[in-house]
Design goal:
Length: 85
Amino acid sequence: MAKEKVKHMTAVFASVFAHAGHISKEDAKEISGLDDEGFEKAYGKASNIAEKLMKAEGNKMDKFLEHFGEEIDEWTKEFGAKFFA
């Protein structure tokens, strides 16, 4: 299960770059290692992050880290305090 969560986070991260036009959607899917369905879910999450970044004022990298961090928190909450133990 943890492996799939890491793949999903990787897919979202790579897909933000695809939404920004730095890599193709196909490249992001290849990087993720997910199947079509899993990748489309991640691509949708990346779309939300990219949309928030387009609307953001100030340092876009800070905003990217903030929004991506929120997603990471959601995906890793089941690990609780054991995440870095």
